[in-house]
From TrEMBL:
Protein name: DNA ligase
DNA damage as UniProt keyword: yes
Any one GO molecular function term: DNA binding
Protein residues bound to Zn(2+): 389, 392, 412
Any one biological process term the GO annotation gives: DNA replication
Alphabetical list of InterPro entries matching this protein: BRCT_dom, BRCT_dom_sf, DNA_ligase, DNA_ligase_AS, DNAligase_adenylation, DNAligase_N, Hlx-hairpin-Hlx_DNA-bd_motif, NA-bd_OB-fold
Cofactor list: Mg(2+); Mn(2+)
Domain BRCT: 574-663
Residues forming the catalytic site: 105 (n6-amp-lysine intermediate)
Lineage, uppermost ranks: Bacteria, Bacillati, Actinomycetota, Actinomycetes, Pseudonocardiales
Amino acid sequence: MNARDRIPQLAARLVELRAAYYQGTPLVADAEYDAVEDELRGLIEANPELAPVPNPLEQVGGPAVLHAPVRHSRPMLSLEKATKPEQVAAFFDRFPGQSVVVMPKLDGLSLALIYEHGRLVRAVTRGDGTTGEDVTAMVRAMADGIPERLTADGRAEVRGEAVMLRSTFAAYNTAHPDKPLINPRNAAAGTLRAKDPATVAGRRLRFFAFDLATDTDSADTELDRALHTLGFTAADMRHCADAEAAQQAITEIEQQRGDLDYDLDGAVLRLADRDAFAAAGTRSSSPRGAIAFKFAAEEKTTVLADVVWDVGKTGKIAPVAWLEPVFVGGTTVTRATLANQEVIRARDIKIGDTVLVRRAGDVIPFVAGVLDASKRTGQEQEIVPPSVCPSCGQALIEQGNSRELFCTNVSCPAQTVRRLIHWASRAAADIDAIGGVWIERLAEVGILQQPSDFYHLTKEKLLEFDRIGEVSATRMIESIDASRQVGLRRALIGLAIPLASDGTAARLCRGGFRSLEEVAEAGVEGLVAVEDIGPKVAASLIEHLTRLRPELERLRAAGVSLDVRDEDLPPVVAAGAPLAGKTVVITGAINDPRTGEKVPRPVFQRLCEKAGATAASSVSANTDFLITGAGVGDAKLTKAAKLGVEVVDQNEIWQKLIDAQVV
Ligand SMILES: NC(=O)c1ccc[n+]([C@@H]2O[C@H](COP(=O)([O-])OP(=O)(O)OC[C@H]3O[C@@H](n4cnc5c(N)ncnc54)[C@H](O)[C@@H]3O)[C@@H](O)[C@H]2O)c1
Ligand SMILES: [Zn+2]
């Protein structure tokens, strides 16, 4: 199609997509929307005379269909996009000698907060950039990080992004399987659009500031200091003197992306000095003093080709989406979880649908829902949960609010394979020379049925298989031999007992149990006496360890150690322990300052414990120190500041550990 026809078509599509998006019902994922914008931009650049009037690329946001319109004192604009280092360098060249801040481009919705004589008088959405909507009441009710009063005279306008934290989003969806939110951005927009805070309980938002204008010059001209002094949490700004430093900061933000508690879709570069930013002025739809560097999309749409019900190691039967391959979150995804039948029902997902796939951070790829049901052709098929186990045929049972399905047949073949694979996994016995495919094969022919069977495999038996040669057979046997030292904690993990987590196994070791048999004999009362082990977990442990008693005996007979290992014992507190009596929370990446080597967090935690500290997993009023490594998320720091918890850099702690000869 020629540009003359294509341009108006793309322009109309943009208008349509924006309208839907700003209404809170996007029709496509952002990546697809951006592709339409990019194509249109490219065509107009090549054919400027064909630019549509009006040109949607020079307009901001969505249509102003607003209940309570408020005109902005100055437009709320988009940002010019950059994808290449050259564009970052060009930005620096435009502003020689200026300091630039690089910060995450938060994926929420922008708000303008207006303060008069130090009081919050109005909170307004961006709207079409010229006119926004008054959302003051909902912002007051639902958003954290927005002070009601400021020590600022005259008029002050703070702009920033209201986001739903990923943790809030996840907690809400767990608590409301029947009315799930599709992604944090949409959820934030929907929350502020609600008429009544009661209908959106549990959906709190957080505000991060990135812009400030005042009509007096009392505030600092440096943006982040000024925002901080006023009592705002600003977007995490890093000062960069040149393009190279900025590129480095962008890379860092992208690497941290998975560890942060909010979605971000890029990094923003902006002149650090407020006056310089204002003086740089604006283009039709973006300020000149800032650009946005885009990251790879964490959400894309693709076709749901099929749903397969997968049998897990504890017998849970979970729906797995088979997808047309899609590049999202940095990899090609072909499988994603659909969680359970309630999620499928609540999100109204059918086979053949174009679905939104989300892969953010370390979370397993997830089918978030169907964006545009009008794409349906009528050929889509209902996803029907099985009534019997796809592996053994036993009738399934349903459990819990989300009606999870379970096969309770202990000799179910699929479960057997899953359990064997789990026993061999790194967190458990770590038999790394035998992969899942071989475990499945050995289980099929009946040689492997339970963990103890690994220890009766011989090289001769393995060599009977066509595709196992001398070298791999030797490696397999060596790997099995090494795993005999598995010990109490990892053996318990390897047995995959429902409700018992890796943490449970660690707590039992620290609680003084010396062997798996001792745990099995302790009774429910004996186990709940251990800190942080509840009655349900204890009951499950006793039930399953009693059932597994003969297997424990077989493992022992095969020379497998089920005794506690030294490294899992409660730490011996060093004399003159420098952290005695302190409760600490560790966050960020930890590196040994003497070697610069990365130190896994559990290892560092153990060192702190040896120095007398008690480690906790989240910051509370009881925390003495928040120990920070590299790349710490704002959420924890903010919480620490709020609770008056002292924030201590890892290097200070390392010094104490070194001085006390703990390391
Ligand atoms: N899926 C869809 O159909 C659809 C439709 C329209 C727009 N979109 C998405 O919306 C976005 C485009 O919106 P846009 O062009 O209005 O915005 P933009 O990408 O140009 O960015 C401007 C916005 O970034 C936000 N922001 C976040 N952190 C910031 C920071 N640290 N400093 C400054 N601003 C910050 C502000 O809210 C500001 O309004 C794109 O990501 C696009 O994919 C999607
Ligand atoms: Zn089964």
